Amino acid sequence: MKNPVRASTIYSNQGEGQVRHARPTDWLVAMRLHHWIKNTLVFLPLALTPQLFSLQSVVQCLLGFIALGIACSGSYLINDVLDCVADKQHWSKCKRPVASGLISTSSALWVGMGICAVGLLFAVAINGLFAGILAVYIVLSLSYSYYLKTLILLDLVTLASMFTLRITMGAVLIDGAINPWLPVFVFLFFGGLSAAKRTAELAKRTQRGDHSNNRRGYLETDLTMLIPFGISMSMGALIVLGIFLTLVAVPETVYRSPLRLWVSVPFLLVWTLRIWTLATRGALPDDPVFFSLRDPLSLCVGALLGMSILAAHLP
Predict the structure, then answer these.
(1) Which is higher by pLDDT, 312 or 13?
(2) Are 4 and 10 in contact (CB under 8 A)?
(3) What is the spatial distance between Cα 45 and Cα 42, in angstroms, rounded to a whole number?
(4) Which of 180, 183, 178, 219 is closest to 202 using CA atoms?
(5) For residue 5, pLDDT beyond 50
(6) Which of 74-78, 210-214, 220-224, 262-266 is the least confident region?
(7) Who contacts 195 (Cβ-Cβ below 8 Å, separation ≥6)?
(8) 6 has pLDDT over 70
(9) Mean pLDDT of 131-153
(10) What is the pLDDT of residue 208?
(11) 151-175 as b/e: b if 16+ CB within 10 A
């Protein structure tokens, strides 16, 4: 029987017997720092209120963003430990530092728990209620990684709920109330994007003839159910956004030029339809966040959305 390869090292292709130990960059990759972009949702309640120009509120949200990012990075390491066996069989996730053996599962687990603790302690120093919601977020994230991701549709509800918790934390940071339309929009919008990601995974599995489910409960035949369900959530989110802009954003006591916010609707519609087109074709990358950060259209839409929100606060 062959001796097992040490989990903390991996053999390189440069020559037999050569090994490469985990580098700091491998840890940074495993912590998925580029996924911190999702945590910018904590700024959304701030951006939609007159407090946008309050230095104290901006600093408070920035500190919360850092605490949330640290905690999320820790949870990603723990997630990679739980998914290690399945990731080894995946066509792209097998390259992750934990799945490839560059980082041992025991090291990733301990470091992940330590990083989560650091994030929580930092959050306590910022705001007690914010720290409590962050603790709920971590528990939900780990529950998703351990079991909930194996349940069809409930996995999408869980992911959408985690995005909604982000804006809840943002509202707590500025001691503001969330308009009811905002969490509904976020839940539907990111639930739809999560469904698009699942659709892309299933489409790729069908194209490759790969019948492994990577700890997901979906079958290739579920595409006929998943696609209309996800598109309905995405379109529902845009309808809710339109209602929000009509009923809430119009009063000039909140925005000085609220009509400028309507620019967001057609751009989000085009971007969402493009994501769904790529997903149904199996052309959407396994990491939609990394794709969005490198995609010129996504970056352009993000910049225009930011400018429309800022312009709505100006005369």
Answers:
(1) 312
(2) no
(3) 7
(4) 219
(5) no
(6) 210-214
(7) 156, 226, 227, 229, 230, 231, 233, 234
(8) no
(9) 92
(10) 72
(11) eebebbebbbbbbbbbbbbbbbbbe
Would you say residue 252 has pLDDT above 60? Answer: no
Q: Check if the beta carbon of residue 22 is closer than 8 Å to that of residue 102.
A: yes
Exposure on the CB side of residue 199, measured as CA atoms within 13 A: 24
Region 264-288 average pLDDT: 88
pLDDT tens for 22-66 read: 788 888 888 999 889 999 999 998 888 878 888 999 999 999 999
Phi/psi for 8 (5° steps) reads: -85, 0
List Cα–Cα distances, 279 to 152, 155, 195, 201, in angstroms. Answer: 18, 18, 9, 8
Dihedral in degrees, nearest 10, Cα atoms 195, 198, 203, 207: 170
**Six token digits for residue 136:** 């709920």
Gap between the Cα atoms of 189 and 171, Å rounded? 19
Residue type, position 287, single letter: D
Alpha-carbon distances, residue 154 vs 142, 144, 246, 291 (angstroms): 15, 10, 31, 25
User: Rounded mean pLDDT of 124-151?
Assistant: 93
Q: What is the pLDDT of residue 215?
A: 62
**One-letter identity of residue 35:** H
Which residue in the block uniquely carries the two structure tokens 């659709």? 199
Q: What is the CA radius of gyration of the chain?
A: 21
Q: How far apart are CA 221 and CA 95, in angstroms?
A: 28
CATH class, 24-177 region: mainly alpha
